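Re: [ENG-882] Designed sequences occasionally contain unexpected residues at chain ends

Forwarding the minimal case from QA. Structure tokens:
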């Protein structure tokens, strides 16, 4: 049973420890939950900033509903980072509900987000609790940009791009994120068109030309992203198409080539055979936890182009250190939930539950983002 108001599940993982950094910064006590308590203690001692001043505990728990329910009970908010969420997320969602907790996670996996909405949205609403997946740099920044664009009257169609830079794309991506990227090839990826989720073609890609870059950035649908789901039932929005790209076009081309190979050679294999292939790819791509991000290296540009019959606008959110920003976003939402300030219960995105201006302000005040809006 948790004795602190916030649970961080996935305590020995890269993103989980960054959430703890921000909880400590905001003087919020937390319970760290992990499958291996001794490993979590060791990793936290190495990686969590100001841990010596934190008010926290560590609980060891297996990944099943009954055990996690017992570990979460007593808390008010669960921040889950254990992925790929396609494989592991729903267990934690169910456990948080049974424990009477609000639920946040860091996923960007569209199929999983749809499952959360369909299986647990009504149950959380009836319990007076919020279930809000995808509270992370990817895709909260793009959603903030989209909401800024929607402030222009008449906008009903959105195109968004999430563009990131690191020392090398693979060198700056966590092990969990790499697993999620390649696991996505087993899932359907959709965009929103005329208020209906529509599957992308298996070979879909985009060449995104943006004023911030000399050359176009090669982008992929990246599983569809969370935005088409978050805007599917929004009366303001008719269409939403989202793309993701690293500045390193060669890496993105290699990921795209793997997607083509998957569709041609691996899609019809057994689950066990696919698991072995994915494990080999993940192990060879990201063999270890990356170092902490540097503000001089990890930079991001997320933008939304909004169109209407006559309206046209571009909203851009510039950022740094996307994993560190994810920790900040999780903490910003936890603060609101602990204060009892959420505009929504049941299934809702971060912007709809807490307001995109609040999230943007939290990031801006901490030097993690700035935004601009221009009429086109």
């Amino acid at each position: 049973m948790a004795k602190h108001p916030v649970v961080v599940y996935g305590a020995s993982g890269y993103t989980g420890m960054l959430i703890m950094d921000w909880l400590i910064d905001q003087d919020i006590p937390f319970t760290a939950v992990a499958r291996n308590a001794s490993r979590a203690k060791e990793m936290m001692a190495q990686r969590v900033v100001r841990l010596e001043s934190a008010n926290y505990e560590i609980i060891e728990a297996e990944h099943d509903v009954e055990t996690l329910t017992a570990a979460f009970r007593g808390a008010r908010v669960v921040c889950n980072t254990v992925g790929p969420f396609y494989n592991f997320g729903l267990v934690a969602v169910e456990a948080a509900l049974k424990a009477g907790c609000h639920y946040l996670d860091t996923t960007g996996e569209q199929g999983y987000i749809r499952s959360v909405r369909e299986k647990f949205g009504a149950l959380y609403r009836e319990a007076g609790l919020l279930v809000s997946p995808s509270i992370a740099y990817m895709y909260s920044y793009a959603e903030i940009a989209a909401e800024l664009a929607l402030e222009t009257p008449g906008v009903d169609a959105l195109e968004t791009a999430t563009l990131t830079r690191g020392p090398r794309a693979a060198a700056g991506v966590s092990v969990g994120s790499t697993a999620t990227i390649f696991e996505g090839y087993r899932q359907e990826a959709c965009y929103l068109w005329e208020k209906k989720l529509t599957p992308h073609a298996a070979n879909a890609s985009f060449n995104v030309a943006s004023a911030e870059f000399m050359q176009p950035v090669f982008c992929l649908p990246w599983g569809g992203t969370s935005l088409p789901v978050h805007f599917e039932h929004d009366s303001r929005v008719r269409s939403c198409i989202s793309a993701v790209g690293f500045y390193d076009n060669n890496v993105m081309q290699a990921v795209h080539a793997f997607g083509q190979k998957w569709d041609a050679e691996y899609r019809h294999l057994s689950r066990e055979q696919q698991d072995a292939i994915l494990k080999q790819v993940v192990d060879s791509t990201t063999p270890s936890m990356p170092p902490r991000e540097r503000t001089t290296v990890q930079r991001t540009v997320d933008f939304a182009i909004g169109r209407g019959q006559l309206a046209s606008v571009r909203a851009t959110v510039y950022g740094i250190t996307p994993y560190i920003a994810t920790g900040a976003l999780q903490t910003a939402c936890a603060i609101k939930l602990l204060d009892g300030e959420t505009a929504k219960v049941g299934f809702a995105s971060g912007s709809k539950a807490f307001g995109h201006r609040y999230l943007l302000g939290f990031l801006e005040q901490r030097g993690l983002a700035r935004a601009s809006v221009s009429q086109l």
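QA comment: On inspection the terminal residues look reasonable. The chain has 13 helices and 16 strands. Proposing we downgrade this to a documentation issue.
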